[in-house]
Amino acid sequence: MRGIPIIQPSTFNIQAFTSRIPRREFLCQSALAAAAVALLGQEAFTASRPQRPNVILINADDLGYADLGCYGSDNISTPNLDRLAREGVRFTDFYACAPVCTPSRAGLLTGRYPIRSGLTTVLFPNNKVGIPDTEITIAELLKRQGYSTACIGKWHLGHLPQFLPTRHGFDYYYGIPYSNDMGEIIDGYPNVPLMCNEETIERPAHIDTLTQRYTEEAVRLIRAHGNRPFFIYLAHTMPHKPLYVNPRFKGHSRGGKYGDVVEEIDWGVGRIVQALRDEGLQRNTLVMFTSDNGPVFGKKEPGGSADPFSGGKGSVFEGGMREPFIARWPARIRPGGVCHQPASNLDILPTLVTLGGGKVPKDRGIDGRNIAPLLTSSARLPDYAFFYDVTKPGSVPAVRFGRWKLRMEKGRKELEEPQLFDLDLDPGERRNVAAQHPEIVADLKKRITAFLQSLEGESPLLLGGGRGRLASSPSPTQ
C-alpha cells in the first residue's frame, strides 16, 4: 500500500481501536496502521503549495432523481442531504454517462465515455476483464498531486487483482467488487465478498450492515487524515436491489423499505459531515453526492422515483440517466445555489484534477470538462453536447445540447425518424417536436457524427478480448 493517510503514533491507539471491531477486520486495520507508520518518513506536500480541497465523492447505486427531499420526495426524509444542498449547490440537470452500473462508474472515474475504455456492459463475477491499465483514474491523477486516496464501497470495474482499486490509484480499498445481487443466497445474504485491499475478509458480506460500515470507515479515514489532502470515493452498495437495511433503520421511513435504505445513506452523510466538523476540515473539504443511474421500479421490492421524468434504470429516457448532484465546499461554494445547466459525471475528473492542482491528460479523449465555475459562482459555461449511453460502437442513442434532446433510439432499437424534445417545457419527453424544428434536428445529428468520428483510431478493451490504446484526439462536444 502506498500513500495511505499519515497517522501519528502518538494519537493512533491500535489496541483501543481494534477492540471495537470484529476480528475479521482486524487484519485490514492492522495493515493500514502499519503502512501509515511506515510512511512517516516520507515527505508530505509542502505548505508553499496553494491550498487544495480534500474531496469526498459519494456515489449511490440506483438512486432515483426524486428520492431526496431536496429533489421533491415527500415520503423519504433526507435532512442531512437537504442541508448539504442548502449549504452548497444543487444541480437540476446532472447526468450519469450510462444507465447501468459498470459503464457509469467507468465514465465517472476516467472522465471518458465507456466506449473509450471498453467497459460497456455490466460486469459479473465470471467475467475475466476489467478496467484497462491504459486508463487513468481520478485517484491516479490526484495521487500525483500528493493526495491520499481511498475507495470505499462498490467497485464494479473488475474483480480480479489487476483490476482492483489498489491497482488503479487508490491507496486503500474496503468494499465489495461488484453488485450485491451477484451470488446465490447463503445464510440470508448473496454470496458477495467484502474485501480489504486485495483480500476477502468476509463472505458472504453482511449487506444489511454495509452502509453503516462504509460510513464508519470513511469517518475513520477522516480522523486519521494527517497533513496530506485526501480523496475518498465512497460508492454505496444501496439502494441497489435486493434491499438490505440496518435493523436500527428498519420501519422508520414513510417510503417503506426503500425509504429506510435511503434514509440510512442520509444518516451516513450526516456522520461524515460531522466528522469533518470535529476535525476542523469542513471548510476546505469538497463533498459531492450523486448516483450511478436511475431507479429500478418496484415489483417484488419497492423502488425509487424519477419524477417528473419518464423511464428508469437501463433506459435513455431522462429517468434512467438524470441524477441528483449536490456539492458543498464552504471555502468556495456559496450556500443555496441551484444550477440548471447540464453537466455529467464525466465532468468530475477534470474538475477535481484542476482543483487539486493537476492537469487533465491531453494524450487521450477526455469527454468531461471542468465545471468548477458552475460550483463556485453563478457563471454559465458554453453549451455542451452530452451523449447518452455511448456503449455500442457506431451508435449514440440520444444527445442533449442546451434545452434540446434528440433521441435516435428507443429500447435499443433505432427509430425510423429521430424524436426531438424540449426538456425545458417537456421534461417527461411526451411531445415530439422534430417536425417543428428541422434545423435543430440537423444540428444535433451533425454533433453525433462529429463525436463518432472522434472515436476513430481507438481500439478499446471491449468485453471478450483485446487491449485498449490511447485516443489521439479529444471529443468535439462543444
- At the fourth level of CATH, the homologous superfamily of the largest domain is Alkaline Phosphatase, subunit A
Per DSSP, what share of the residues sits in E-state strands of 2 or more residues?
15-25%
The averaged pLDDT comes out at 88
Give the overall shape, derived from the CA principal axes: globular
The first-to-last residue Cα distance is 40 Å
CATH hierarchy class name of the largest domain: Alpha Beta
Q: What's the number of helices?
A: 12
CATH topology group of the largest domain: Alkaline Phosphatase, subunit A
How would you sum up this structure, described in words?
- The protein has 478 residues and is an alpha/beta fold.
- It folds into two domains: 324 residues, 3-Layer(aba) Sandwich (Alkaline Phosphatase, subunit A); 69 residues, Arylsulfatase, C-terminal domain.
- Helices cover 25% and strands 18% of the residues.
- The chain has twelve helices and 17 strands.
- Strands 1, 2, 3, 4, 7, 8, 9, 10, 11, 12 and 13 form an eleven-stranded mixed β-sheet that branches.
- A hairpin with a 2-residue loop joins strand 15 and strand 16.
- Helix 7 runs parallel beside helix 8.
- The longest helix has 23 residues.
- The chain is globular.
- The two termini are 40 Å apart.
- The N terminus and C terminus are likely disordered.
